[in-house]
Amino acid sequence: MSKNKVIITCAVTGSVHTPSMSPHLPVTPAEIAEQAIAAAEAGASILHLHARDPSDGRPSADPAVFLQFLPVIKQATDAVINISTGGSSLMTLDERLAAALKAEPEMCSLNMGSMNFGIFGLAKPGMEWKHDWEPRLLEATRSGIFKNTFADIEDILKRLGEGCGTRFEFECYDVGHLYSLKHFYDRGLVKGPLFIQFVLGILGGIGADPENLAHMKRIADKLFGDDYRFSVLAAGRAQMPLITMGATLGGNVRVGLEDSLYIGRGELATSNAQQVARIRTILENLSLEVATPEEARSMLALKGGDRVAF
Questions:
Q1: How far, in whole angstroms, is CA 191 from its chain's centroid?
Q2: Which domains does the chain show, CATH number per domain?
Q3: Model confidence over 272-305: pLDDT tens digits?
């Protein structure tokens, strides 16, 4: 397989942005399915999925909500479905795991450390809110901790990894998270090829700077050698510049309305597919090839879409 194959992940809705921030953020199961399918058709080979309460758009951990869109997406596309185990920083670990344990997907995200996860800055003065929960959720991150202890990570690796054959997108928000991952790698609790997501630009994690991306790759190279692949996620306005840099360094990329609501300066993206199409054009102009879902499965040693529980 060509070394130039690049996996595009699309993070369709997340739990950071709220409905008042963009009319294009998918909220209902039908909207999430529609946008996920369109993103796959545009070139995303992995779909990273959260759920929201259909009534008001707040983050939801309810497996019944996930199961309203997971089968629809699976029937319409061959893309790898990646379910969040991060959920929201305000959810318990059992809540965060409930949908993934029910669905037994090919891939899940796994956050590699406890951290401050500050999104309170998204609440700008004078904003008009559709729902009372929105500013409360954002403000709660000022005093809360996103808890991902070593015991939590061990639990996820055992219950989802061993129990369901699920492999992981290891989300590393800082350099220390790479060393925590190395701890589990050395213990044999995780095995290569690792898929590491460098997450840049979250308040409480490493900043969205080119120097930081280069440093994360340098340390990952030192720790894992040839036994890993990396992808880049950059929040907000840093999305396209930093993921393009990541691709030129030999990495994979993640876009989606979870990470940025915009397609250009001051211009809201009208869909997830619009962002996927934009990065695909950039990659192809760099003479890089976009990986198909089957190529992504091979690159990441996934179990296959026929071995999930939805």
A1: 20
A2: 5-307 (3.20.20.70)
A3: 999 999 999 999 999 999 999 999 999 999 999 9
